[in-house]
Amino acid sequence: MEETNIKKLYDQLLKDKDFDKMDLGLKNPNIFQILRISKNEIRHSNFLSWLLESDGSHKLGDIFLKRFLREVFSSERFTEIDQIDVEGMDLSKVEILREWKNIDVLVKLNNIVVCIENKVLSKEHSNQLKRYKEIINMEFPSHIKTFVYLTPEGEDSQNETDSYLPISYEFIVETLDKIISVYGESLNEQVKNYIKDYITIIKRELMGTDELTELSKKIYSNHKELFDFVYEHKPDVVDGVKSIFQDQILKRGWVLGSPGKNYLRFTTPKILELTYINELRNGWKNRESFLFEFVLDPEKDRINTKTVISPSDSNYNSNRLSELFIEIDGFKSPAGKKWLCNYQKLERFSFSKVDEQTLEEIEIKFNKILDAFSVIVEKVEDKFLEHKEELLRLKEH
Asked: Greater confidence, 278 or 33?
């Protein structure tokens, strides 16, 4: 697409009144979007647990809890108790447990337990619902036991249809809307804003039913050519996190090496001092003979951490460096002939969920990988320093 055509399409977009409406709507601050937790399952469970607390700081008392229990006990799946019974319950001493034995939310009353499995974007796995049911039956043999499967669409469980009651996030939205309309004037203003933000996020991110979502569909339809072009050329997830990774590497006093789209390469000042730099091109922009290398693999949500000796010109003996590395505990002979890798290990990193994480959360997770890899860095550094004189001679030839 020619530049003049792009500018023309963009100008048409800027003159669209619907685009102005959406732009203004998106600029309204929302605490869940600011914290980048709008699709984070754990954060949704935390907020729901807070709402369910009868003595929570929200000052709603048992209003939300009572409405939720009514919905649960209105189901024919649970015959031992009826929604009418909720009115006579003493909810002042209810316990709301989070991640108890890996169960998302557990509501515990005197003789009743409600086990809630919350699924925002993920699906059930590893027979987890069956396992949770077995845990509840074992831990609360004399309690009335109920099980809830909470999802955006209120879909049934795949494997535990008879045991788990499906409840949708639409019910959560309707309940909170009613609470705002009835009790809004008496609610703390900050609490009311939190709840309104939460309603907006559920509609927008989980259900796709908010006004801005509908408006976006209309705008896309009217400016499809421009949006399709932008989407085809948007930066990928690796571009988004690589600068964060690089900052954490630099904070440790390490040195960034030759760049690559899905590669993060670095060394240390002590190693760099003893590293041969090739006179001819060797596949790396800066022509280093050795670097630590992280291969970023967003499709498989992992990072391959490794040491790499690059192909070198005739002035440098790469195989001798590899021989020294083999002496390091945990290192081995390289499989390749040109690119020599004496050490590598796969580390899990959820590239697919970076949009749901805060900057701090991404930094913490990446630093766990760096902490583990720093042991390798120290071993390599020690080996370089142990053979400093020899490596200097190799470098100078």
From this structure: 278
pLDDT of residue 213: 80
Which residue, 264, 212, 268, is CA-closest to 238? 264
DSSP characters over 13-50: HHT-HHHHHHHHHHTS--HHHHTT-TT-HHHHHHHHHH
DSSP 8-class letter at 311: P
> How many secondary structure helices (H) and strands (E) does the chain include?
15, 10
Q: Is residue 257 a contact partner of residue 291, using CB atoms and an 8 Å limit?
A: yes
Which residue spans within the chain are E strands per DSSP?
Answer: 95-100, 103-108, 112-118, 144-151, 164-168, 255-256, 263-267, 290-297, 302-309, 340-348
- DSSP state letter for 314: T
Q: What is the predicted pLDDT for the residue at 147?
A: 94
Residues 6+ apart with CB under 8 A from 189: none
State the Cα–Cα distance between residues 67 and 139, nearest whole angstrom.
26
Mean pLDDT of 56-79: 89
- Return d(Cα 61, Cα 355) in angstroms, integer: 34
Give the per-residue pLDDT at 1.
66
The share of the chain scoring above pLDDT 70, in percent, equals 98
Beta strand 164-168 pairing with 144-151? parallel
Q: Are 298 and 352 in contact (CB under 8 A)?
A: yes
> Around Cβ 235, how many Cβ atoms within 10 Å?
8
Dist CA 145 CA 78 (whole Å): 8
Encoded tokens for 132: 């949770």
Nearest to 383, CA basis, from 337, 338, 334, 343: 343
